[in-house]
Design goal:
By secondary structure, the protein is of the alpha/beta class.
Length: about 300
């Protein structure tokens, strides 16, 4: 019989890739973690990690296979604990939501505050980050991202479409060459992403839309790009749910340059059974649907459920 405690140690090392980091999360000495991992490998007669001073503990092929089973066991244990204690079916507890930086800051955060006002006994963590959040590493309970997960024990739904447009300040447009058609953009400069640090190909819209564009300022952060555009020195492609709320920015070639992307919402299938997750899931879906015009750039303010 596999010892569950040993599997807990295995999961933390797999997620952090460091024995010392796993030890801190588990509240034990690093020697205890090392001993547990060696014992588990001996019990299974298998090498679970490739150890390196530079890269840390990386899962082997056998380690990856065990990780899938251990993660399923962990979810089952958490669900059983919550359901048997009554917490799982109560409108209380804690949830962590991970989302892309722009959506997380400008849409998710105000909606989360509205949710918490309605359900004061459910506490929330909001993680707006310019990368994918890993549910398998327990970074979050619910994820909202621009790509649908390809595999995993998840419940997933398409949350919404959203629109991006080219924006500039009125001052920029007044002081630079007129823009009446797309070919005029060769006379202008742009703000964009750092190409080699893109966390998704779905963000490569400037290069696809305007391959000859002259990018003079790059950032991994869409919020940084937004603030750079406000300085009035260059143009930027921005989500309408950020730029359309700010009268200091106006769309450029509004009828010609329109980009559509999608957000997906997903969580682990076991967590989806918890009442607080079901309530949050339904609330987010209805709230985002109510803001379809904001996400499409046809309205400049958030709307809330009655």
């Amino acid at each position: 019989m596999l010892d569950w405690d040993s599997l807990r140690y295995f999961l933390e090392v797999a997620r952090t890739q460091r024995v010392s980091a796993a030890a801190r999360k588990l509240g034990v000495e690093h020697t205890t973690v090392s001993r547990r991992i060696r014992a588990l490998e001996a019990e299974l007669d298998s090498l679970l990690f490739e150890k390196s001073r530079n890269t840390g503990f990386l899962l082997t092929e056998d380690g990856h296979r065990l990780f899938v089973y251990a993660e399923q066991m962990e979810s089952a244990v958490h669900t059983a604990r919550e359901n048997l204690s009554g917490i799982g079916q109560a409108l209380s507890g804690h949830l962590r939501i991970g989302a892309t930086e722009g959506f997380g800051s400008y849409v998710l955060t105000p909606l989360a505050a509205d949710f918490q006002r309605r359900y004061p006994h459910i506490t929330l963590d909001i993680l707006p980050v310019p990368r994918f959040v890993s549910l398998s590493k327990r970074e979050a309970d619910l994820a909202i991202t621009i790509e649908r997960p390809q595999r995993g024990p998840y419940v997933c739904t398409k949350l919404c479409d959203y629109t991006l447009r080219l924006y500039g300040t009125p001052g920029y447009l007044a002081n630079h060459a007129p823009i009446t058609r797309r070919t005029d953009l060769t006379e202008h400069t742009f703000i964009g992403y750092v190409d080699e640090l893109l966390f998704s190909e779905r963000l490569r819209y400037l290069e696809d839309l305007l391959p000859e564009s002259r990018v003079v300022l790059r950032s991994t952060s869409v919020i940084a790009q937004y603030h750079a555009a406000l300085q009035g020195r260059s143009l930027a492609i921005l989500p309408c749910f950020i730029a359309a709320q700010d009268p200091r920015l106006v769309p450029v070639l509004e009828n010609d340059i329109t980009i559509t992307r999608s957000f997906w919402m997903y969580c682990h299938e076991d967590l989806h059974k918890l009442k607080r997750m079901a309530i949050l899931w339904d609330f987010m879906r209805k709230s985002v649907m109510r803001n379809a015009k904001l996400l499409a750039g046809k309205q400049g303010a958030m709307r809330y459920l009655p």
